[in-house]
Amino acid sequence: MKIEAYIQNKAELCREAGMKLASMQSRVKNQALELMSKKLKEKSGLILAENKKDVAAAKKSGLSNAMIDRLILNEKRIDEMCKGLKEVISLTDPVGEVIKMWKRPNGLTIGRMRVPIGAIGIIYESRPNVTVEAASLCIKSGNSVLLRGGSEAIRSNIALANILIEAVKESGLPETCIQIIDITDREAVMKMLKQDKYLDVIIPRGGEELIKTVVENSTIPVIKHDKGVCHVFVDESADFDMADKIIFNAKVQRPGVCNALETLLVHEKIAKRFLPVTAKSLSGAKVVLKGCSETRKILKGIEEAKEIDWTTEYLDLILSIRVVKDLDEAIDHINFYGSHHSDAIVTSSYENSQRFLREVDSAAVYINASTRFTDGGQFGLGAEIGISTNKLHARGPMGLEELTTNKFIIYGNGQVRE
Amino acid sequence: MKIEAYIQNKAELCREAGMKLASMQSRVKNQALELMSKKLKEKSGLILAENKKDVAAAKKSGLSNAMIDRLILNEKRIDEMCKGLKEVISLTDPVGEVIKMWKRPNGLTIGRMRVPIGAIGIIYESRPNVTVEAASLCIKSGNSVLLRGGSEAIRSNIALANILIEAVKESGLPETCIQIIDITDREAVMKMLKQDKYLDVIIPRGGEELIKTVVENSTIPVIKHDKGVCHVFVDESADFDMADKIIFNAKVQRPGVCNALETLLVHEKIAKRFLPVTAKSLSGAKVVLKGCSETRKILKGIEEAKEIDWTTEYLDLILSIRVVKDLDEAIDHINFYGSHHSDAIVTSSYENSQRFLREVDSAAVYINASTRFTDGGQFGLGAEIGISTNKLHARGPMGLEELTTNKFIIYGNGQVRE
């Protein structure tokens, strides 16, 4: 009950602050972001000291080296946070933009205006920089934010959040428009997920387990940032050199992210000639290959890809390969086994490129390019709060615009309905 | 278990059909809609016979006259369904529209394409015409649909759906793209709400109780069509005649709908002069007035408005009235007690009109016009599947565009990420 009251109070304050923040000017919001950047630099010593405690505790509790690496802060990483803040400042404030305006025969002028969503709950893991990223994007788009970071980074997150909150207060934004949950009890998350009276949306960022917990327990709408089981399909008419480069990039350049390649599909008519080419490139980067029975006739000695492989996000230097009969089989495979994230075709056929584009049911569908481009920055949308795997509201890289909703505005001069 | 298997099977077939329907041409979808209209006319005898049985059963079970009136079909109402179908045919198909396209420095061309959401579940009550309206909008926007109507209209709904399904089959659309749940067990709804593997969204249309059940039990994203507690605020500078006409229209023209007026707010500086004017007009339509203490000093003898009144959707000739200190108090009242549906200000002040527009957190915000215009047709958006009170994805009248989502399409020529 004590935790419930604590969380409800935070959520209520978040809503209240959001109502005020919604109509604040871009100039004021940008000043707050500027001040955040300044204060992060000034107080980096404090941040690093708190972070050291987190890292020590994490080492003691036996967290993996990869996880510890994500947790560690240093001057360079703080500089990156400040750079991120500057980028958010430079983005156009979407709030108040009237997207469309039209006139009705009765003289009413009707428009759609972008407005903040309201109060946003962010639940995230590990990387403390998310505290700054998420908070700054919410503030810029006029939303208040309730942050809940992972327990392993609790001291770093609190130190960062307190600096942001200081900047908020000094710049005249509503005091509670950024708040952090500073207890690590799991129950706090559960209670947070039931604050549908106060929070308008929950954005979970983290592993599969976290996403599942949130989706199953939330009574608040959730915008998921789920896993990516991404595909490249090499069509019969593909340029081998291009296909090879795209596959290598999508698999190897950064295997631990959601837009990295996990399953390669190859048209049966070219499999015999193409698979050895790409296997050779990939072996140079020590990628472990797993194949269907057809693939294993061509690439002798590789592991067998089992049913479970087609739905697995390896996040590692592992690639499953399947030979398919044609474009239809490739599209069916992607739509059935994939995670509807990012998928690419390599082809010289105009017709097949267009069919792939239309029929693959994914957030981002590529012709002749690496799936690794699915990213707000790469798409030219600016900083992103994540990559949504929802179909509703936001799909794909989720930037400032996706942190807003619309309202209809209607200018009349006395019209009544007949 | 039997019901669960039945529902799951329907949902699975719905998803499959949706995948195929997504890439079908507008021409084919329109042909199916044409055929639906033709068949509804041809088979009106059958529909009316089944409807008679529903009406007889409803009378026997003691349903209110208002409910029975909504249930009754006749040739005129069937003609209206056909007219509705023609209207949907005339609307532009949103599927495949590329909203935006831009080029990146690396040569990638990136666009956002409208695509169907997928498989949609509709849960509705009473009026059988929703069967035709909802199904036709889903089909036109490339979505398959699983219908679940109220038990009191089960025979009418099945008769209508079977005719639509015949038309679907004859026009070559995927056979199961329209389905109806033909059992009336409440458990069927509960099972339907758990089909998150197959259904992409649930749209409930009906009373508060229905909406609540759906929101609390669904693991599928819900687009609510909730109640409307709509306000008119008469500002100090309002034109009395205009304000009076807007209030009368918003309250009286059709009191039983969600965009009708429920609470009137009046600026204290004009309350004494204005309230008698509007009370006189409203008394002509036998509107029952309830007021705050200030109101009751001016309009003697009217009922007291209690706390509960400010959040009540009367859907009847009842109006609650409150005198407010200023614009701020009006906005606070609306944002606190209202349902964020449709709210209007009547004013001559430019500044107040703009503040009201920005600060009232509702789906539709009006200056000097009746709230009754919140409607897809009145806004010029074409037929609507309802008026969403969600903030995410769709807000306000929900037409064909809101039945679609986007995907990013990326044209490359071998780009890889550096």
Structure description:
Two copies of one chain form a homodimer. Chain A has 418 residues and is an alpha/beta fold. The first copy, chain A, folds into two domains: 2-226 and 389-410, Aldehyde Dehydrogenase, Chain A, domain 1 (3-Layer(aba) Sandwich); 230-376, Aldehyde Dehydrogenase, Chain A, domain 2. The first copy, chain A, is built from 15 helices and 16 strands. In chain A, the strands form four sheets. The first copy, chain A, has a seven-stranded parallel β-sheet with strand order 10-9-11-8-7-12-13. The first copy, chain A, has a four-stranded parallel β-sheet with strand order 5-4-3-6, with helices on both faces. In chain A, strand 7 (230-234), helix 10 (240-252) and strand 8 form a beta-alpha-beta unit. In chain A, helix 3 (44-60) packs antiparallel against helix 7 (154-170) and helix 10 crosses helix 11. The N and C termini of chain A lie far apart (53 Å). The model of chain A has no long low-confidence stretch (mean pLDDT 95). The interface between A and B is large, with 67 and 67 residues. Strand 13 of chain A pairs parallel with strand 16 (404-415) of chain B, so a sheet runs across the interface.
Quaternary class: homodimer
- Low-pLDDT sequence parts of chain A: none
Number of domains of chain A: 2
Portion in beta strands of chain A: 15-25%
| Strand line-up of the largest beta sheet of chain A | 10-9-11-8-7-12-13
Number of helices of chain A: 15
| Number of beta strands of chain A | 16
Give the largest interface. Answer: A-B, 67 and 67 residues
CATH architecture of the largest domain in chain A: 3-Layer(aba) Sandwich
Largest sheet of chain A: 7 strands, parallel
Q: Classify the secondary structure makeup of chain A into a structural class.
A: alpha/beta
Share of residues in helices of chain A: 40-55%
The CATH H-level homologous superfamily of the largest domain in chain A: Aldehyde Dehydrogenase, Chain A, domain 1
End-to-end distance of chain A:
53 Å
Shape type of chain A: globular
Calculate Rg of chain A over CA atoms: 24 Å
What does the average pLDDT of chain A come to?
A: 95
CATH top level assignment of the largest domain in chain A:
Alpha Beta
* CATH fold-level topology of the largest domain in chain A: Aldehyde Dehydrogenase, Chain A, domain 1
